[in-house]
Specification:
single chain; 150 residues; alpha/beta; 5-stranded mixed sheet; 5 helices
Length: 150
């Protein structure tokens, strides 16, 4: 896995969100951006993580952050997930792995004794120029907003 590190410039990307809108990295030029990757919509830990960020959305915005959630789920799954919990930020349906590969978050995982390739739960905080300022690779789903703000 060749994951982006602090100081790396994020390559330009383009992906569809839960509503079919095209989202580009360049849309966030001049803004601080949090890009969080999660394995699957509507699973317990992913839901806890996404809801924690949504519950703290106003505080994150007040600190100048925009948010993007990313998984390889279909647009329909992302849409259902977003509507079910009322997320105030876009969820990218990165079925072609353009964003996942750009950040280098796809790789070998172990779960319940099984080994497989999948998305690693990692969050990147980008500065106004699309450069990685912070990488959170030990995400605490119930305290994720605090991890970003501290």
């Amino acid at each position: 896995m060749n994951t982006l590190k602090v100081g790396d410039k994020v390559p330009e990307f383009s992906s569809k969100d839960q509503d079919g809108n095209t989202i580009n990295l360049s849309d966030y030029k001049g803004k601080k951006l949090v890009v969080f990757f999660y394995p699957r919509a509507n699973t317990p830990t992913c839901t806890t993580e996404a809801c924690n960020l949504n519950d703290n959305y106003d505080q994150l915005r007040n600190e100048g952050y925009e948010l993007l959630g990313v998984s390889e789920d279909s647009q329909k799954k992302q849409s259902n997930f977003s509507k079910k919990f009322g997320f105030q930020y876009p969820l990218l349906a990165d079925v072609d792995h353009e964003v996942i590969d750009a950040f280098g978050v796809w790789g070998p995982k172990k779960f319940m004794g099984r080994e497989f390739d999948g998305i690693h739960r990692i969050t990147f905080v980008l500065d106004e120029n699309g450069v990685v300022e912070k990488v959170i690779d030990k995400v605490k789903a119930k305290e994720h907003a605090l991890q970003i703000l501290n």
